[in-house]
Write a structure and sequence with these properties.
Two copies of one chain form a homodimer.
Chain A: H1 2-20, H2 25-41, E1 57-60, H3 66-76, H4 82-86, H5 116-134, E2 148-153, H6 154-158, H7 160-172, E3 177-183, E4 186-187, E5 190-191, H8 200-206, E6 210-214, H9 220-231, E7 237-242, H10 256-259, H11 264-274, H12 285-316, E8 347-349, H13 350-364, E9 368-372, H14 376-379, E10 398-400, H15 405-416, E11 421-427, H16 431-443, E12 449-453, H17 471-476, E13 482-484, H18 489-501, E14 507-510, E15 515-517, E16 532-535, E17 543-547, H19 551-566, E18 570-574, H20 578-583, H21 586-592, E19 598-602, E20 620-621, H22 632-638, H23 643-654
Parallel strand pairs in A: 1-2, 2-3, 3-7, 6-7, 9-10, 9-11, 11-12, 12-14, 13-14, 17-18, 17-19, 19-20
Antiparallel strand pairs in A: 4-5, 8-15, 16-18
């Protein structure tokens, strides 16, 4: 029956693309036998419990293969109707243009931008390894024990992010990860001869992977044997399956068939040769039932074992509090009423304060997990005494991502689907490197936190490549993304309070490298308003200065100086989160920033986005140029951002 | 004398870091023998003509090794004084924290963010290959014929961008590229065991490279032989040199010595063991002279050959116009008075129009060179009949970057130093992938152009991962970076006119996928003002709509509808470049956007940066949410960006 099922998956995919008027037939026809073999003969899933915690995961890294995936999920018996398939690529359908998690039953990961999927799957494999370790039963089995499968194409493997992630997967020996490589030597623009001549299997071998070559991508038995062998490997496995793009189409083997629907004539001959009746969306019910039966027979046994294991788990694990995060993620963390040992006027670098705070949090958030892209020593993002994650120490809570910011971002996305509270860290300037992965987090509503330190030209000597300018606005512009720039340790606590409550929004915590005193008047709980008055005017209000991060300290000094020198009454507003403040009530906003008063903004970053608060750009003390290498003070002067310049300009504008 | 020179390079580097109070001693002590051997025994340079076109290039990809580089350049005889070295990491010095091209004589590339250097060097190697081909003399030699050397560390090789670039270098068999890999098994956070266990040489072999292993990184002869062998290779070469980080320091072999200055005691014992007198900045003049002599002896011969070749070149190449770009880049291109065959109301996708225009430009800009990250078929950025660059066709003008956006960005940076006018292309949504490289272009003032198509939710069916939202503002926020979003083919011409004149500013040309008519009233030369009135109000002005790109067409229709239906007089302003408009005179700005009138903005992207033009956010028709998969019209509605919604809201706001 294999042949019939594969043929039907192919024609359903082709009909969907025809109906939608766009899509990617090449992978549908080329890779159908791969995905069929995987789902029918290996995937441990329960189509009636699509969120089953111990299901095998599948990531369609070649996200343009969505039609193939949906057709397969339909044939597998997930709750997708023919009607759903017919609505491929239409608004509010269950079958969007690229796979979107949360929309389609059976889709475990949103994909589309190449390379993201395979790197996220590495994150899933890390999470599975950890959970497998953490849920070990007395009988030696684990509550969580499953595989992570990926289907990827040449494009995924050309992307740097996949190399980064694969190198880490090799180092960590994630043998629960099996990548099926649809190797057809053709990409969007043509043959890969001109762009991609490397020996992929040898490359993966060098990175510590097991590799298997499948000569004939239409041979279900050969694919089946390869997956069987991969499942027994002590290393992650890459199975290179040689396929023909658009197999069976008149354009088979060409790049044209990659992303352009087949002509009517082509569909006709294809269906004829596949022995599928001509009418669109024909379903061979017997084939569908056979595929469902194969999945059910295997999956049901596994699902039964799960029930038994779950019972044992509940009996054996007495300290359930530490494990309930595996099943639900509804714990409320209240940092505002937690006692942190902080004293006003204590001076310390915010990155150090943040480290202390994170380490306190780790004490009662057992599922905190994350790491740094080889900058833990500088960002100070490290959970002391909680160990480093490695194949020898699956218990470790610190993941060493290496100098791989982009993979870090995608790996965090993958882990986050396992309800760990994940974080990553690097310099703010290098946040650019992981932006595409952060965007995926925002699209997929993953509550990941990123700690970006070294947050402005204030870092000084390392020079313009290390001095962020446009990064703050770039992050603020991402939909469904919170950016926090606290001014001291107390505000950091407020930020973490919000971050830990976030269920669907990623957050960036932007902190400086420099030593900063804790302010008398800062307030953790005010961070919930996004902005608040941190220094009230002494008398009748002359003007308001909005500042963020370390600039708040300068703003307060300017206010005090101008009061003492000129009896000018400035109000200072700390705005740790622009987005949150703009969501507060108009009344609150008016209370903090009343209309009719001159307002100024001080932030060591791009002016974009700040104009709305001020009369015109003269009132903005921001930076729209690259910095330079020098002491902090020298670079501030170089960028016209030094204390005296700002103070004098504010004074002149108030006159 | 090798030993003495290396010792002196080491102590100068260490003294610089001590004096500056920050820097990276690990690489100074570990890699000094490598860089010394390269400069003393191989680099063909002329320290008195640092911009010699045919010099060998050196890229310090491990940019934190700046002290090592500067000390070496000093000993090599470049115009760097001891005073310059003492000013390491201070403002306006010739010796900034990370290498910056244009500031330090002998520095060929700005580096710092890891991976960028090695990928840019691949671009240099591509440019060299092309020029070597293009400047071939009758005697078989070429005017341009040199090597590109890179020094990189573990961090560079963990970054995905280096894998992308190396894979392409292997495919293109760039045997003029030699990468020296300072392999010390230590990165910033610790030993690479936990992060990076792969076999780097095997990985590079799989990517088509020649690889050489140097066991002892202190053995000048062994390094020398490796480089000699690499120079004869038919493939690019990776030389893995095993070194000890911080060799000679008390902290040798640890990650602590990577980025932290040595203690006084440590410096003392180091100098003692290296037989260097204790006083800071000691220079062994004999050693310096010896190193200069080695370089001069070899370099002078090469420099002499260059003079001869140059004479032959001038005699042999009759059509000098086509080659003068090699020597100078001062040609003025006037597209505004060039006749393009365009008719108002012609409908065609802007990406098609752009292709025609670029192909016209290519006819008289002989040094136009670039390509796409495997999306040429979709972005339509392709120079017809000018061939594809490959090892068999060095004449080709189209570079196939593969699905490697980030490497594309860095490779363009490298090529741009050879005075080619380079361009790259992908979807706007994927501009995120190459952002770090575009930032380097802006910092280094490289006049590169990026053509980003599929510029909004208007692409429809591919869904949110492919629909840009925050990308426009992210690009606009980069200092020294021009963003163009033309509304039709005529404006595209105006954009290219400016792009071709740009000498120090990179540009992004943002165009849509959809079919768009050429407007009667659009004007190429008005692009030079950044914004202009494209549809004048019919009577007394009621309001002004600012729009960009395809939104200009909708704005014009709204104006016409509201005039016919309600006799409302709207002025429509097309703003293809926000940055350029904001640099025009206040008078011009007042003429286009007079104060005291209601203004609206329509742009299918983030609102950030637009607030300055309007009264409040109600007047902004922008998109701060992710799109969805559906038809263009459905997605517009989903994002409240459809024609009727905008028209109605404008009408209500005008009442």
């Amino acid at each position: 029956m294999d042949r019939e099922i594969i043929a039907n998956i192919k024609t359903l995919g082709i009909d969907m693309i025809k109906e939608a008027g766009s899509g990617h037939p090449g992978i549908v026809l080329g890779a159908a036998p791969i995905i069929y073999t995987l789902y029918a003969k290996h995937m441990n899933i329960n189509v009636n419990d699509e969120k089953w915690l111990n299901r095998d995961r599948f990531v369609m890294s070649a996200g343009h293969g969505s039609a193939l995936l949906y057709a397969t999920l339909f044939m597998a018996g997930y709750s997708l109707t023919l009607e759903d398939l017919k609505k491929f690529r239409t608004i509010h359908s269950k079958t969007p243009g690229h796979p979107e998690v949360g929309i389609t039953p059976g889709v475990d990961m949103s994909t589309g931008p190449l390379g993201q999927g395979i790197a996220s799957a590495v994150g899933m494999a890390i999470a599975e390894k950890k959970l497998e370790y953490e849920t070990k039963l007395k009988n030696g089995k684990s509550l969580i024990q499953h595989k992570v499968y990926v289907l990827c194409g040449d494009g995924d493997l050309m992307e740097g992010i996949s190399s980064e992630a694969a190198s880490l997967a090799g180092t960590l020996q994630l043998n629960n990860l099996i990548v099926l490589y649809d190797s057809n030597n053709v990409c969007l623009d043509g043959n890969t001869n001109i762009t991609f001549q490397e020996n992929v299997c040898e490359r993966f071998k060098a990175m510590g992977w097991n590799t298997i070559h499948v000569k004939n991508g239409n041979n279900v038995n050969e694919i089946d044997r390869a997956i069987q062998s991969a499942k027994r490997s002590a290393k992650p496995t890459l199975i290179e399956v040689k396929t023909i793009i658009g197999d069976g189409s008149l354009l088979a083997g060409t790049n044209i068939v990659h992303g352009k629907g087949l002509t009517d004539d082509d569909i006709k001959q294809l269906k004829f040769n596949l022995q599928i009746p001509q009418p669109a969306f024909y379903v061979n019910e017997q084939a569908k039932q056979d595929m469902q039966r194969q999945i059910y027979t295997r999956g049901n046994t596994k699902y039964g074992e799960w029930a038994t294991n779950y019972q044992m788990f509940m009996n054996e694990f007495s300290n359930k509090e530490n494990y309930e995060f595996i099943f639900k993620d509804d714990k409320q963390y209240d940092l505002l009423n937690y006692h942190f040992n902080l004293n006003a006027n204590d001076r310390e670098a915010m990155r150090i304060s943040n480290k202390k705070i994170m380490n306190e949090i780790a004490k009662y958030v057992p599922n905190l997990l994350g790491g740094s892209a080889d900058l833990a020593s500088a960002t100070n993002v490290y959970l002391e005494q909680l160990g480093d994650f490695s194949k020898e120490n699956l218990n470790g809570k610190n993941i060493w991502f290496g100098v791989r910011e982009h993979a870090m971002g995608a790996i965090l996305n993958g882990i986050s689907f396992y309800h760990y509270k994940v974080f990553g860290s690097t310099f703010l300037s290098f946040s650019d490197y992981l932006k595409p992965a952060m965007r995926m987090a925002a699209i997929m509503k993953r509550p990941i936190s990123y700690i970006f330190t070294h947050d402005s030209i204030g870092i000084g000597q390392d020079g313009p490549t290390h001095q962020p300018i446009e990064q703050l606005v770039s992050l603020r512009a991402i939909p469904n993304f919170n950016v926090f720039r606290p001014c001291d340790a107390k505000e950091i606590i407020g930020c973490w309070h919000i971050i830990l409550q976030s269920k669907e929004t990623p957050s960036a915590l932007i902190i400086s490298r420099n030593e900063t005193p804790i302010l008398e008047s800062s307030d953790a709980k005010e961070v919930l308003n996004g902005a608040y008055i941190i220094e009230k005017e002494q008398g009748e209000l002359d003007g308001i200065v909005i500042a963020t991060g370390t600039e708040v300290h300068n703003a307060i000094h300017i206010a005090r100086d101008l009061y003492h020198e000129k009896k000018i009454n400035l109000r200072i507003v700390s705005m740790p989160s622009r987005e949150i403040f703009l969501k507060t009530s108009p009344e609150y906003q008016e209370q903090i920033l009343p209309k009719g008063y001159k307002k100024f903004v001080i932030e060591a970053g791009s002016s974009l986005g700040w104009e709305k608060f001020v009369y015109n750009e003269k009132y903005l003390f921001t930076i729209d140029m690259f910095g330079a290498s020098g002491t902090k003070d020298d670079v501030y002067q170089y960028c016209h951002f030094d204390y005296e310049t700002i103070k004098t300009k504010i004074l002149n504008l108030l006159r």
